[in-house]
Amino acid sequence: MRRQLIKRYFITGLLIWVPLAITAWVLALIVGTMDQSLHLLPAAIHPRNVFGFDIPGVGAVLTLLVIVVTGLLAANFIGQRLVVWWERLLARIPVVNSIYNSVKQVSDTLFSSSGNAFRQALLIEYPRRGTWTIAFLTGTPGGEVLRHLDGEHVSVYVPTTPNPTSGFFLMLPKADVIPLDMSVDTALKYVISMGVVAPPVRRQSATVATTAPTI
């Protein structure tokens, strides 16, 4: 009996400390990586030379500041002209232009406020009939692909678990896709937890008729 109690307390302690430890490790990794930007500073103003010791997090603040200032400069007319000039310069460099253009197209799709990527959580049958999984709407098929598809289709991304950064890109008939009444963040938590952290059921008023979200 005492052994079972100790085992239960040990597991309870793990459930508390493991998420905290992983969170601290991820934050330390991010801050440590961003602190590498301090190597770009002149030696005269480097924190180690000014204060005599390293200050953790200064590189992260510097990186965020550079990103914000870059976005601020790119938002005006002169900054936009410089961005266009820079992209034209990269377009003339072999290999670099292919990598840069591919990454830019993906980032524009994911982070643009007018994009459709990861704006809707879906339920689809995959990888076979009768087996269901969570997917995310990324848009609609385009280009030459449309000539080979009958009817209206949607493009979806099926993430793997517990690492949602890898997955599968599918084009499915719109009629086979079920929109879910949950946020993308909630759906991602559901996927990352391998189904352990189930999304809460939203209570709907009995007097108000509700419909599923539209794609």
UniProtKB/TrEMBL annotation:
One Pfam family here: DUF502
Keyword Zinc-finger: no
InterPro entries linked: COV1-like (IPR007462)
Transmembrane segments: 9-31, 51-78
Taxonomic source organism: Accumulibacter regalis
Keywords noted in UniProt: Membrane, Transmembrane, Transmembrane helix
Protein name (record): DUF502 domain-containing protein
Entry keyword annotation includes ATP-binding: no
